[in-house]
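User: My instructor asked us to take a sequence, write out its structure as tokens, and then describe one feature of it. I'm not sure where to start. Here is the sequence I was given:
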Amino acid sequence: MVRNVFFSFHFTRDNWRANQVRNHWVTKPNAASAGYIDKAEFEKIKRRGDAAIKNWIDDQLKGTSVTAVLIGTETSKRQWVDYEIEQSYRKKNGLLGVYIHNLKDSEGKGDNKGSNPFDQWHIPQNGEKIYFSDLYSTYDWVSDNGYENFGKWVEKAAADRGR
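Assistant: Let's start with the prediction itself. The structure tokens for your sequence are:
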């Protein structure tokens, strides 16, 4: 099954790495063989204030069933990544994290591994805090062979949320 995926990431720092993930399907025979379609057109976002950014994120999430959080060095500290995780959870999107620090940037350099943003989110259950990091899987794009496995990860995330 092909899914519409929203990609959440630190735009300024990780755009080069994120585009390698977002565009990996281009070298496959078709979108169906990749297992997803990228819903986001994040290049269009303009810094016109918080309300405009929230509206843009909300519009990009429409029609998606999975949100892939691309985890770089500073992703867990980003206000808009937090908002995207929150909105994705509320709309019952499947969630998954993908570490991208091992991908090379435009200068051929990797980066430091960032913290899992799912460690900051939790839901109450039987008087306990259940952290998103215990509920949603994370992968490393390089060591877990994201090029071949991303579609499977997306499908698992969707199934875990009953989508």
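For the description part of your assignment, you could build on this observation: Confidence is low (pLDDT under 50) at residues 33-43. Try explaining in your own words what that tells you about the chain.
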